[in-house]
Amino acid sequence: MASIENESLAVASYEIGTSDEERRLYVQIWQKAVDTQMHFNEMAVKSRQLGLTFVAAALGVGIVLLSRGNDFALPVPWDNLEFQVHVSALIVFASALALWAVSIFDLNVYHKMLRGAVTFGEDFEQVYMKEIFDLEKGMTQAISHYNRFSDAKKELVDGKYQYSGKRETTAESKIRSFYRVTIGALFAVTIGLFVVTNWSPMMVITGFDNVSNAEQMSDTEMNGANSDEPSR
Q1: Is 155 a member of any domain?
Q2: Can you tell me the distance from the alpha carbon of 189 to that of 195, in angstroms, rounded to the nearest whole number?
Q3: Residue 158 covered by a domain
Q4: Model pLDDT, residue 15
Q5: What is the distance between the alpha carbons of residues 122 and 150, in angstroms, rounded to a whole number?
Q6: How deeply is 86 buried, as exposed, middle or buried, from its count of CB atoms within 10 A (0-12, 13-18, 19+)?
Q7: Is residue 161 part of a domain?
Q8: What's the sign of the alpha-carbon dihedral 168, 169, 172, 175?
Q9: Cα torsion 78, 81, 86, 92: sign
Q10: What is the CA radius of gyration of the chain?
Q11: Helix/strand/coil (H, E, C) string of 16-55?
Q12: 205 located within any domain
């Protein structure tokens, strides 16, 4: 941090004289802006990798436990039936919640800081760097263009690239869609595991047997009560 502050002070105190000196100053500021963008992007990517690593580990443990059968199932009685909540379903459900927590942190912290750095970079390239390199867009602007437009394309006109695109989609909406689909798939797997671990003929037969036994006991009690009544 101290070295960065010293470099910033050195840049700020740089005496601007000729146009070459101004250009060197602009390039230094632009390099710092790009480094900042890369830093925040790296932090965002690492947070998503952490979430996906946890999901992959949870799915692996869930498969191993599921192969053990009902040894890792928790019985949940309900009415005349007894359901089995397998531990694998709970682990997958927990991984979905963990990924949801990562998405909140990613979208509300790292992604916002990255957007701020990119916005500064685009503004700086538009105002200063275009005058130096005589380009239609700077590097940050070109990356943002191809990221925002699914049909982004370029055309060489008079020795310079002209960028175009109509179908705009922000990076935030893409990231939200990624988290939404992944978390939804984990919830679907959780429900599927619950259904699969409980969908067996034995459970249904046991339920019907319990109902039949209850009806037979009721009939027996009624017959006993009728036999105990004095005959007229």
Answers
A1: no
A2: 10
A3: no
A4: 40
A5: 19
A6: buried
A7: no
A8: negative
A9: negative
A10: 33
A11: CCCHHHHHHHHHHHHHHHHHHHHHHHHHHHHHHHHHHHHH
A12: no
Q: Residue 48: which residues within 8 A CB-CB, separation 6 or more?
A: 102, 106
Q: What is the pLDDT of residues 25-56, one digit of tens each?
A: 888 999 999 999 999 999 999 999 999 998 99
E strands within 40-141?
73-78, 81-86
Give the chain's end-to-end CA distance (angstroms, integer): 105
Q: What percent of the chain has pLDDT over 70?
A: 78
How many Å apart are CA 109 and CA 172, to the nearest integer?
12
Q: What is the pTM of this model?
A: 0.69
- The whole-number pLDDT of residue 223 equals 53
Q: Look up the domain containing 192 and give its range.
A: 20-132+171-198
pLDDT digits (tens, 9 = 90+) for 170-224: 889 999 999 999 999 999 999 988 888 877 544 443 443 444 454 554 555 555 5
Q: How many residues does the chain have?
A: 232
Please state the domain count of the chain: 1
Distance, CA of 194 to CA of 110 (rounded, Å):
35
